Structures are given as structure tokens and as C-alpha cells.
Amino acid sequence: MSFSVWSDEINNTARENKSFEKALKMDMENIMMLDKEKQTAVFYAGEDTEDYNTTLSHCDCQDFRYNKKGQAPCKHIYRLALECGLIDPDAEPWATYKTYSKLYNSVTNKIKKLNINNLQKLNAYIDNSKPE
Ligand SMILES: [Zn+2]
How far is the CA of 112 from the centre of ligand 1 (A)? Predict the structure, then answer.
């Protein structure tokens, strides 16, 4: 299930699930160049930024270089792996990641909608629900 230099342990975190989900949702328009044989791609980075050169083990983007410090794939690396057929999004563990992302987003959105009154109610509910 792992691809390139990435182990399943690295992929199996909330943050990586998020990157994988973003890779699935990314528009084809963002892929400026794709070479499936050499397993490299160039992704559009925005008007004021140079495009990202991506291989299966490296990417020029901020997320990969700074947030992940080169220790986990960014959405571009996942997308390149998807385009090269190295990842089947309907097979495990990727299918579970997709389900997980949906649940995670749903819970996150519900929490964002909570106002202070609801948070106080929730807090009281949790306090009253403590086991004896
Ligand atoms: Zn990237």
C-alpha cells in the first residue's frame, strides 16, 4: 500500500488523510505537466509563485518543505502517485482515508458552528456525563 519512500505509518495520520483528500479533489487544470514514465509533474502554484516541480519523494511547495519538513507526502505527491496509478483510491487503506476525511470534516464543521452558549452547554453536558 505504501508508495515510493513513504511507509504506511507516515500516511496513516489525520494530516496525511487531509493531504490525500486534497489530492483527490484537485482540478486537472492545476497539473501543468505530467510525465507518468519519469513519475514527475509540475503543478500550478498561483499567479505570483513559481510552479511546483514534484516527484514521488519531493515537492517544491511550502507544505512539503516547511510544514512537513520533507517527512511526509504533500497533496501534489499524492496526486502524482494517483495519476501514475500507484495508489488505488478505492482500495485499502486509501478508501478508509476517504471515509475518515469525510467524518473529520463533518465534525470539524459542526464544531466551527458552535457559539459560546452551545459550547457552555456542551461543556456542562460533558461534565455531567462523567462516570461515577
Ligand atoms: Zn507539494
Answer: 27
